[in-house]
Structure formats: C-alpha cells, structure tokens
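tool_call: predict_structure(chain=1)
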Amino acid sequence: MSMSKNIWRTSVADNILESVSNVTEFNEMKEFMNDPELDEALDLIIKLIMKPDVPAGKSPELIVRLQALSAKFAMLSRYYTTFEKGGDSSKKKNVYYTVSDALDKLVDSVKYLARYGL
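tool_result:
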C-alpha cells in the first residue's frame, strides 16, 4: 500500500513540475512572439488545463473567441509563410501554425463538452 502511495506522490509531483515547465515555456513563447492575442490564447489554454469544466452558459462565447483567435493565427502563419521568410519569421510561422491547430482541436473539445453537458 505504501508503495502505491509513493507512486501516486511521484506522479503528482511530476505533473506539477511538468505544469510549471509548460507555463514557463508559454511565458518564453509570449515574450518571443510579442502578440497580445497569442497571450490571451495561451492564458485560456492554461485556464482550461487547470479547470476544464466550462459552464454551459460560457461555452458559446468561449468557442467563438477561441475559433476567432485560431483564424487570426492561421492567417498570420500564412503571412509568415508567404511574405516573411527566414530567421525569427520562420519560428513565428511555426508557432502560429501550431497554436491555430491546437485551438481548433480545443474548440472541438469544448463543443463536445457543451453538447453532452459534461
């Protein structure tokens, strides 16, 4: 029994360390990208990680906001692919592509939660 408690404690400690590491990486990304709407998107992601239960009345607003941010990031990724090339532009393009894709998947999850009242 004490062994399973030890494994659980290690797992919880690892999860906390991983979460802190992710937040630190998000902060570094925020500084590099210097985009207030990307900051907002990352903040919303962190909030959903910490408390994934979205009240039913807030779901539609959250869905629209996340999807709008995703659309902006998709357009910016295309901009950096087409007009800005090399160096930091290449890194920004990749960040915008990734965040747009992740937000699309997150929106699908929020829709699922809203639809089934979970």
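agent: The chain has one domain: 2-116. Proceeding to next step.
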